[in-house]
Design a protein that fits this description.
The protein has five helices and 13 strands. The radius of gyration is 17 Å and the shape is globular. The chain has a single domain, classed as Glutaconate Coenzyme A-transferase, CATH 3.40.1080. Strand 10 and strand 11 form a beta hairpin. A ten-stranded mixed sheet has the order 4-3-2-1-5-8-10-11-12-13, sandwiched between helices. With about 220 residues, the protein is an alpha/beta fold. The longest helix has 10 residues.
Length: about 220
């Protein structure tokens, strides 16, 4: 089955198409570019005010140029940087083609919980609410279960909600689900897993795509 994070990121990279403006969250989403086809031209955007981010610099990092997580980044030819008010204006106007965010839980209705676990200190919600609401397409990446085995794809989220009815696709190491008109649909079973694995590890109700039923 390999490394689950890499499996998830590699599958998520297939959702990015040539010419897209893409925002990546921290965690698993941040390694999605490692699996992009070199022929694809993508404009990575950071909500702190960069469009056209390049890879992390290995030497001579500019201390004033960082991504939304605060890590040094580079900028590609043709890229630009601007204030965060302009960046959030782009997000709220729907200029982001796809936002790929990490998640703590996702409900069968597409509700996203990804910013806080009660009792734990966090720096804040950041741009998650705007990105979840404003991006044309929101993809949630996460492990299928907690470390103790509890499902993370839920009938109803038990953690504080970031944004309601926003997630369009969920990618885990076990499966790929889509959410359309509040219906959760199993579209892919990842290599090394079975329908039984998914049923036993998913709290939410879901339908099964016809092409999976035909091959089961």
């Amino acid at each position: 089955m390999g490394d689950a994070r890499q499996t998830i990121a590699q599958r998520a990279a297939r959702e990015i198409k040539d010419g897209m403006i893409v925002n990546l969250g921290i965690g698993i989403p941040s390694i999605v570019p490692d699996f992009l086809d070199a022929s694809i031209i993508v404009f990575f955007m950071a909500e702190n005010g960069i469009l056209g981010m390049g890879p992390s610099p290995t030497v001579n990092a500019d201390g004033n140029l960082s991504n939304a997580a605060g890590y040094p980044t580079s900028i590609l030819p043709g890229g630009s940087y601007f204030d965060s008010a302009t960046a959030f204006g782009m997000i709220r106007r729907g200029c982001i083609d796809v936002s790929i965010l990490g998640a703590l839980q996702v409900s069968e209705h597409g509700d996203l919980a990804n910013w806080i676990v009660p009792g734990k200190r966090v720096p804040g919600v950041g741009g998650a609410m705007e990105l979840a609401f404003g991006a044309k397409n929101l993809i949630a990446l996460m492990s299928h279960c907690e470390k103790d085995g509890r499902p993370k794809i839920m009938k109803e989220c038990t953690l504080p909600i970031t944004t309601y009815h926003c997630v369009k696709k969920i990618i885990t190491e076990m499966a790929v689900f889509t959410i359309d008109e509040n219906a959760l649909m199993l579209n892919e079973i990842m290599p090394g897993y079975s329908m039984t694995d998914i049923k036993n590890n998913t709290d939410a109700n879901f339908q099964v795509s016809a092409h999976i039923k035909a091959t089961a």
